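FAQ

Q: What does a record look like?
A: Structure on top, sequence underneath. For example:
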């Protein structure tokens, strides 16, 4: 049952199609946590604009990410579902956290280095201080448990440092709880279908690198058929599997989707051709992902309903945020 002070918070950027990595690495866990704890799930539109977004497309993507939350099984009667920019406390606390976080800490963030690329001088300031906004998202609600994929681990460590430093600097012992990352082991990082050493990502140029939740059954079958594998026969054991990134990724996805252990998958396919696993994997993906895609498309036809979900979420989130912000302003000495 719900622990008294436990609170889950997580966010997803509305920057394009949700993919299998988002679903398995994060959103599926959002849904199971909803049964056990109080949860707040946020469409992080302020994070999205750290790289330029076409305003019309951004609006659509905010709705679509909301639809993705609902289609995955989030229930707006149980969880708070809202978009970040509708609660201004996120931006206010982010500013305070900009003054708590150290430049040296941000300089270590690998995601900034990856996203900014070779020409860091041209990246937006927002992209650089993005992890402070993420810390503010979490701390605004004093959230304790944060379900994310492995790529967000470093940002969560920074959030823990920020919380600690705020508590120390302002002699506000234990004011902010130190949030715990909840990272699923096997599927913490779903890899690209074209390169088992790169994570599956919205920004990958190749559509064949990822399965989108809105993909048709034909798309899914084609993509899995084309998924890169090595030329060796099906791995004999986990030790061998762990040395073969593409094989490991497909086996991990299959094991997660079919709810079976990696050991069982290895036993079932030992001695068989890789195409056999691919066939079963695409059938399993079609069965579990296509209904989500259909539901997203259906929900997108009813923007009135999606707007009402976000509005209700905003009201509830704002109430909690304002309560905490009142204390935060007092602690900091703002009138
Ligand atoms: P975002 O929008 O990039 O991704 C949303 C969630 O999906 C996970 N994820 C993956 N998991 C496994 N394998 C993959 N290939 C994969 N790709 C994405 C991400 O880890 C994430 O959990 N900064 C965050 C959003 C955010 C947030 C927050 C999260 C903003 N504020 C506060 C938690 C708490 C992001 O850009 O996620």
């Amino acid at each position: 049952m719900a622990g008294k002070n436990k609170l889950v918070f997580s966010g997803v950027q509305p920057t394009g199609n949700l993919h299998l990595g988002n679903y398995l690495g994060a959103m599926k866990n959002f849904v199971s946590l909803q049964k056990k704890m109080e949860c707040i799930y946020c469409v992080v539109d302020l994070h999205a604009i750290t790289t330029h977004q076409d305003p019309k497309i951004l609006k659509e993507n905010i709705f679509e990410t909301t639809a993705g939350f609902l289609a995955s099984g989030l229930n707006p009667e149980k969880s708070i579902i809202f978009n970040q920019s509708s609660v201004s406390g996120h931006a206010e606390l982010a500013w305070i956290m900009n003054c708590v976080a150290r430049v040296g800490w941000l300089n270590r963030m690998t995601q900034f280095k990856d996203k900014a690329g070779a020409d860091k001088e041209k990246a937006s300031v927002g992209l650089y201080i993005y992890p402070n906004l993420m810390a503010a998202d979490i701390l605004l609600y004093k959230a304790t448990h944060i379900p994310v994929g492995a790529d967000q681990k470093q940002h969560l460590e920074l959030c823990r440092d920020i919380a600690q430093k705020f508590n120390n600097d302002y002699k506000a012992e234990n004011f902010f709880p130190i949030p715990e990352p909840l990272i699923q082991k096997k599927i913490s990082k779903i890899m690209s279908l074209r390169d088992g050493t790169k994570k599956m990502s919205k920004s990958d140029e190749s559509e064949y690198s990822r399965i989108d939740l809105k993909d048709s059954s034909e798309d899914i079958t084609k993509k899995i058929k084309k998924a890169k594998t090595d030329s060796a026969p099906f791995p004999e054991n986990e030790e061998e599997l762990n040395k073969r990134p593409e094989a490991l990724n497909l086996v991990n996805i299959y094991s997660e989707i079919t709810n079976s252990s990696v050991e069982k998958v290895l036993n079932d396919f030992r001695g068989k051709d890789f195409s056999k696993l691919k066939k079963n994997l695409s059938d399993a993906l079609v069965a579990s992902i296509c209904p989500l895609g259909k539901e997203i498309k259906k929900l997108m036809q009813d923007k009135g309903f999606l707007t009402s979900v976000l509005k209700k979420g905003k009201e509830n989130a704002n109430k909690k945020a304002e309560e905490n912000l009142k204390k935060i302003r007092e602690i900091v000495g703002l009138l």
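Q: Is there anything notable about this one?
A: The first strand starts at residue 7 and ends at 12.
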